[in-house]
Protein backbone atom coordinates (compact mmCIF):
# COMPACT_ATOMS: atom_id res chain seq x y z
CA UNK A 1 0.00 0.00 0.00
CA UNK A 2 1.30 3.41 -0.90
CA UNK A 3 0.93 6.40 1.42
CA UNK A 4 0.72 10.07 0.25
CA UNK A 5 2.67 12.50 2.45
CA UNK A 6 0.72 15.57 3.50
CA UNK A 7 2.35 19.01 3.40
CA UNK A 8 4.09 21.10 0.82
CA UNK A 9 4.26 20.07 -2.76
CA UNK A 10 7.53 18.88 -4.08
CA UNK A 11 9.64 21.61 -5.61
CA UNK A 12 7.92 24.53 -3.83
CA UNK A 13 10.26 26.45 -1.45
CA UNK A 14 9.32 26.52 2.19
CA UNK A 15 8.44 29.95 3.57
CA UNK A 16 10.37 30.67 6.75
CA UNK A 17 8.72 31.99 9.86
CA UNK A 18 5.29 30.80 8.84
CA UNK A 19 4.30 34.23 7.51
CA UNK A 20 2.65 34.74 4.15
CA UNK A 21 3.17 38.54 4.28
CA UNK A 22 5.65 39.71 1.68
CA UNK A 23 8.35 42.17 2.78
CA UNK A 24 8.04 45.69 1.40
CA UNK A 25 11.21 47.35 0.25
CA UNK A 26 11.03 51.16 0.35
CA UNK A 27 13.02 53.17 -2.16
CA UNK A 28 16.18 54.75 -0.77
CA UNK A 29 14.74 58.22 -1.31
CA UNK A 30 11.72 57.40 0.87
CA UNK A 31 13.96 56.15 3.68
CA UNK A 32 16.00 59.35 3.53
CA UNK A 33 12.82 61.44 3.71
CA UNK A 34 11.60 59.55 6.77
CA UNK A 35 15.00 59.97 8.44
CA UNK A 36 15.13 63.71 7.73
CA UNK A 37 11.57 64.19 8.98
CA UNK A 38 12.42 62.41 12.24
CA UNK A 39 15.56 64.52 12.67
CA UNK A 40 13.60 67.70 12.02
CA UNK A 41 10.96 66.71 14.55
CA UNK A 42 13.63 65.91 17.14
CA UNK A 43 15.32 69.27 16.56
CA UNK A 44 12.01 71.13 16.88
CA UNK A 45 11.21 69.31 20.12
CA UNK A 46 14.66 70.15 21.51
CA UNK A 47 14.24 73.82 20.59
CA UNK A 48 10.81 73.89 22.26
CA UNK A 49 12.23 72.31 25.42
CA UNK A 50 15.01 74.89 25.49
CA UNK A 51 12.52 77.73 25.03
CA UNK A 52 10.28 76.32 27.79
CA UNK A 53 13.23 76.18 30.19
CA UNK A 54 14.21 79.78 29.43
CA UNK A 55 10.62 80.97 29.86
CA UNK A 56 10.28 79.18 33.20
CA UNK A 57 13.61 80.58 34.41
CA UNK A 58 12.59 84.08 33.39
CA UNK A 59 9.39 83.99 35.45
CA UNK A 60 11.03 82.40 38.49
CA UNK A 61 13.99 84.79 38.43
CA UNK A 62 11.57 87.71 38.29
CA UNK A 63 9.50 86.38 41.19
CA UNK A 64 12.19 84.99 43.49
CA UNK A 65 15.46 86.52 42.35
CA UNK A 66 18.24 84.70 40.54
CA UNK A 67 20.14 83.59 43.63
CA UNK A 68 17.01 82.11 45.24
CA UNK A 69 15.95 80.08 42.20
CA UNK A 70 17.38 76.58 41.71
CA UNK A 71 17.69 74.59 38.51
CA UNK A 72 15.41 71.98 40.10
CA UNK A 73 12.67 74.61 40.48
CA UNK A 74 13.17 75.71 36.89
CA UNK A 75 12.91 72.11 35.67
CA UNK A 76 9.64 71.54 37.55
CA UNK A 77 8.14 74.79 36.28
CA UNK A 78 9.11 73.91 32.70
CA UNK A 79 7.72 70.38 33.03
CA UNK A 80 11.06 68.72 32.27
CA UNK A 81 13.69 66.78 34.17
CA UNK A 82 16.75 68.38 35.69
CA UNK A 83 18.78 66.33 33.23
CA UNK A 84 17.00 68.10 30.38
CA UNK A 85 18.06 71.44 31.84
CA UNK A 86 21.68 70.30 31.95
CA UNK A 87 21.40 68.98 28.41
CA UNK A 88 20.75 72.52 27.16
CA UNK A 89 22.65 74.60 29.73
CA UNK A 90 25.93 73.96 31.52
CA UNK A 91 24.83 75.65 34.75
CA UNK A 92 22.74 78.54 36.06
CA UNK A 93 25.27 81.11 34.84
CA UNK A 94 25.03 79.74 31.29
CA UNK A 95 21.23 79.76 31.45
CA UNK A 96 21.23 83.34 32.75
CA UNK A 97 23.61 84.45 30.00
CA UNK A 98 21.45 82.86 27.29
CA UNK A 99 18.38 84.55 28.76
CA UNK A 100 20.09 87.94 28.47
CA UNK A 101 21.10 87.18 24.89
CA UNK A 102 17.41 87.05 23.97
CA UNK A 103 17.10 90.81 24.44
CA UNK A 104 20.62 92.13 23.91
CA UNK A 105 21.69 93.43 20.53
CA UNK A 106 24.19 90.94 19.07
CA UNK A 107 27.73 92.38 19.27
CA UNK A 108 28.22 92.25 15.50
CA UNK A 109 25.02 94.25 14.92
CA UNK A 110 26.00 96.77 17.57
CA UNK A 111 29.40 97.17 15.93
CA UNK A 112 27.78 97.69 12.53
CA UNK A 113 25.38 100.30 13.90
CA UNK A 114 28.11 102.27 15.64
CA UNK A 115 31.03 101.88 13.24
CA UNK A 116 29.36 102.13 9.86
CA UNK A 117 29.13 105.93 9.76
CA UNK A 118 31.25 109.04 10.18
CA UNK A 119 30.80 112.62 11.37
CA UNK A 120 27.24 113.74 12.08
CA UNK A 121 25.78 110.49 10.80
CA UNK A 122 27.80 108.55 13.37
CA UNK A 123 26.48 110.73 16.20
CA UNK A 124 22.90 110.41 14.96
CA UNK A 125 23.28 106.63 14.67
CA UNK A 126 24.45 106.47 18.29
CA UNK A 127 21.52 108.64 19.38
CA UNK A 128 18.98 106.51 17.52
CA UNK A 129 20.42 103.25 18.86
CA UNK A 130 20.29 104.61 22.42
CA UNK A 131 16.69 105.77 22.01
CA UNK A 132 15.62 102.42 20.54
CA UNK A 133 17.20 100.54 23.44
CA UNK A 134 15.07 102.41 25.98
CA UNK A 135 11.79 102.88 24.10
CA UNK A 136 11.63 99.16 23.32
CA UNK A 137 11.15 98.50 27.05
CA UNK A 138 7.64 99.91 26.79
CA UNK A 139 6.55 97.71 23.88
CA UNK A 140 8.40 94.45 24.56
CA UNK A 141 7.17 92.75 27.74
CA UNK A 142 9.89 90.10 27.69
CA UNK A 143 12.61 92.74 27.33
CA UNK A 144 11.17 94.63 30.31
CA UNK A 145 11.06 91.46 32.44
CA UNK A 146 14.62 90.42 31.63
CA UNK A 147 16.12 93.85 32.26
CA UNK A 148 14.15 94.05 35.51
CA UNK A 149 15.78 90.75 36.50
CA UNK A 150 19.24 91.98 35.53
CA UNK A 151 18.96 95.32 37.32
CA UNK A 152 16.80 94.47 40.35
CA UNK A 153 16.59 90.69 40.89
CA UNK A 154 20.16 89.56 40.33
CA UNK A 155 22.87 89.17 42.94
CA UNK A 156 26.12 88.37 41.16
CA UNK A 157 27.32 85.66 43.53
CA UNK A 158 30.20 83.29 42.84
CA UNK A 159 27.72 80.96 41.16
CA UNK A 160 27.06 83.65 38.54
CA UNK A 161 30.65 84.84 38.16
CA UNK A 162 30.87 83.65 34.57
CA UNK A 163 27.62 85.39 33.62
CA UNK A 164 28.80 88.58 35.33
CA UNK A 165 32.09 88.51 33.41
CA UNK A 166 30.26 88.07 30.11
CA UNK A 167 27.83 90.87 30.91
CA UNK A 168 30.66 93.22 31.88
CA UNK A 169 32.42 92.36 28.62
CA UNK A 170 29.26 93.32 26.70
CA UNK A 171 29.00 96.64 28.57
CA UNK A 172 32.68 97.42 28.04
CA UNK A 173 32.34 96.66 24.35
CA UNK A 174 29.54 99.23 24.07
CA UNK A 175 31.61 101.85 25.91
CA UNK A 176 34.65 101.11 23.73
CA UNK A 177 32.58 101.42 20.54
CA UNK A 178 31.16 104.73 21.75
CA UNK A 179 34.65 105.98 22.55
CA UNK A 180 35.86 105.03 19.07
CA UNK A 181 32.87 106.84 17.57
CA UNK A 182 33.47 110.03 19.57
CA UNK A 183 37.11 109.93 18.45
CA UNK A 184 36.19 109.95 14.74
CA UNK A 185 36.97 113.00 12.58
CA UNK A 186 33.82 115.07 12.46
CA UNK A 187 32.94 114.00 16.00
CA UNK A 188 35.93 114.61 18.25
CA UNK A 189 36.18 118.32 17.40
CA UNK A 190 32.51 118.72 18.35
CA UNK A 191 33.09 117.63 21.96
CA UNK A 192 32.92 120.35 24.59
CA UNK A 193 36.34 121.59 25.78
CA UNK A 194 37.78 119.32 28.45
CA UNK A 195 35.82 116.28 27.30
CA UNK A 196 37.69 113.30 25.90
CA UNK A 197 36.06 110.54 23.84
CA UNK A 198 36.48 108.23 26.83
CA UNK A 199 34.68 110.58 29.21
CA UNK A 200 31.94 111.21 26.67
CA UNK A 201 31.33 107.48 26.19
CA UNK A 202 31.19 106.84 29.93
CA UNK A 203 28.84 109.76 30.48
CA UNK A 204 26.43 108.53 27.82
CA UNK A 205 26.50 104.97 29.15
CA UNK A 206 25.80 106.20 32.69
CA UNK A 207 22.74 108.09 31.47
CA UNK A 208 21.39 105.11 29.50
CA UNK A 209 21.93 102.78 32.45
CA UNK A 210 20.19 105.26 34.75
CA UNK A 211 17.13 105.41 32.51
CA UNK A 212 16.99 101.61 32.27
CA UNK A 213 17.32 101.23 36.04
CA UNK A 214 14.80 103.93 36.96
CA UNK A 215 12.06 102.86 34.56
CA UNK A 216 12.28 99.15 35.38
CA UNK A 217 12.09 100.11 39.07
CA UNK A 218 9.13 102.49 38.66
CA UNK A 219 7.36 102.82 35.31
CA UNK A 220 5.62 106.02 36.44
CA UNK A 221 8.87 108.01 36.44
CA UNK A 222 8.78 108.76 32.71
CA UNK A 223 7.24 107.62 29.45
CA UNK A 224 9.88 105.81 27.37
CA UNK A 225 8.04 106.52 24.12
CA UNK A 226 7.60 110.25 24.72
CA UNK A 227 10.43 111.25 27.02
CA UNK A 228 13.49 109.24 25.96
CA UNK A 229 14.48 111.43 23.00
CA UNK A 230 14.34 114.73 24.97
CA UNK A 231 16.23 113.18 27.89
CA UNK A 232 19.01 111.82 25.70
CA UNK A 233 19.20 114.99 23.61
CA UNK A 234 19.89 116.88 26.84
CA UNK A 235 22.81 114.52 27.46
CA UNK A 236 24.16 114.95 23.93
CA UNK A 237 23.96 118.74 24.32
CA UNK A 238 26.23 118.37 27.30
CA UNK A 239 28.69 116.41 25.17
CA UNK A 240 28.46 117.98 21.70
CA UNK A 241 28.85 121.74 21.25
CA UNK A 242 26.59 122.04 18.20
CA UNK A 243 24.13 119.26 18.98
CA UNK A 244 21.05 121.21 17.90
CA UNK A 245 22.68 121.85 14.54
CA UNK A 246 23.41 118.13 14.21
CA UNK A 247 19.73 117.40 14.88
CA UNK A 248 18.59 119.99 12.33
CA UNK A 249 20.80 118.39 9.70
CA UNK A 250 18.87 115.15 10.11
CA UNK A 251 15.43 116.72 9.67
TrEMBL record:
<feature type="region of interest" description="Disordered">
    <location>
        <begin position="1"/>
        <end position="20"/>
    </location>
</feature>
<keyword id="KW-0678">Repressor</keyword>
<feature type="domain" description="HTH tetR-type">
    <location>
        <begin position="47"/>
        <end position="107"/>
    </location>
</feature>
<feature type="compositionally biased region" description="Basic residues">
    <location>
        <begin position="1"/>
        <end position="17"/>
    </location>
</feature>
<dbReference type="Pfam" id="PF08361">
    <property type="entry name" value="TetR_C_2"/>
</dbReference>
<keyword id="KW-0804">Transcription</keyword>
<dbReference type="InterPro" id="IPR023772">
    <property type="entry name" value="DNA-bd_HTH_TetR-type_CS"/>
</dbReference>
<dbReference type="InterPro" id="IPR001647">
    <property type="entry name" value="HTH_TetR"/>
</dbReference>
<keyword id="KW-0238">DNA-binding</keyword>
<dbReference type="InterPro" id="IPR013572">
    <property type="entry name" value="Tscrpt_reg_MAATS_C"/>
</dbReference>
<dbReference type="GO" id="GO:0003700">
    <property type="term" value="F:DNA-binding transcription factor activity"/>
</dbReference>
<dbReference type="InterPro" id="IPR036271">
    <property type="entry name" value="Tet_transcr_reg_TetR-rel_C_sf"/>
</dbReference>
<feature type="DNA-binding region" description="H-T-H motif">
    <location>
        <begin position="70"/>
        <end position="89"/>
    </location>
</feature>
<dbReference type="GO" id="GO:0000976">
    <property type="term" value="F:transcription cis-regulatory region binding"/>
</dbReference>
<dbReference type="Pfam" id="PF00440">
    <property type="entry name" value="TetR_N"/>
</dbReference>
<dbReference type="InterPro" id="IPR050109">
    <property type="entry name" value="HTH-type_TetR-like_transc_reg"/>
</dbReference>
<dbReference type="InterPro" id="IPR009057">
    <property type="entry name" value="Homeodomain-like_sf"/>
</dbReference>
<keyword id="KW-0805">Transcription regulation</keyword>
<protein>
    <submittedName>
        <fullName>TetR family transcriptional regulator</fullName>
    </submittedName>
</protein>
Amino acid sequence: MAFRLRGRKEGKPKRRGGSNVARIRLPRRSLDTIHLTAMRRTKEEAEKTRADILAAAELLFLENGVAHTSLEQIARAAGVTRGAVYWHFQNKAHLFHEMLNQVRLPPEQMTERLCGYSGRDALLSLRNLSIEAITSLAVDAQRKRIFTILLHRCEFTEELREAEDRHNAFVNQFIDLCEALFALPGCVERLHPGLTPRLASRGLHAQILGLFTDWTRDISLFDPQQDTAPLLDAVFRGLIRDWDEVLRSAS
